[in-house]
Design goal:
Elements lengths: L4 H16 L5 H8 L3 H13 L3 E3 L4 E3 L1 H23 L4 H11 L5 H15 L1
Antiparallel strand pairs: 1-2
Helix pairs in contact: 1-2, 1-3, 1-4, 2-3, 4-5, 4-6
């Protein structure tokens, strides 16, 4: 998938919700992201067409492809957040900034941050 912040945010949201509950519903995604259910329905259709999710009319499931992609996005979020925290950024700002940065950061910069965070934990 070409980087698309909205689609990536939906995938990440579905991943996190699926870790909390067995069944993910449109209303859960709408609440977590802060959008309307019709907006979620439109996003789900796009993600379904891309092979990232399956929707049975009630529940949203990540496909293997969707789970792998969402996992990469979430890893980026966590590494960037940890990197910012290690540099003295407060938790709320680090989380908000990581949400934005995870979509636009280069692979080179991300790998540097990942190595730094890993070395800092040892």
């Amino acid at each position: 998938m070409k980087h698309n912040q909205s689609s990536e945010d939906y995938l990440e949201c579905i991943l996190l919700l699926s870790r909390e509950t067995q069944h993910v519903h449109r209303v859960d995604v709408a609440r977590k992201i802060g959008v309307s259910q019709p907006a979620v329905q439109k996003a789900i259709k796009i993600l379904e067409n891309g092979g990232y999710v399956e929707f049975d009319g009630m529940h949203i499931f990540l496909t293997l492809k969707g789970e792998e992609y969402a996992g990469k996005i979430y890893e980026r979020h966590c590494i960037i957040k940890d990197f910012l925290l290690l540099h003295g950024v407060n938790g709320a700002d680090a989380d908000n900034d990581a949400c934005e940065m995870e979509h636009v950061i280069s692979e080179t910069t991300f790998e540097m941050m990942k190595a730094y965070v890993s070395a800092s934990k040892n």
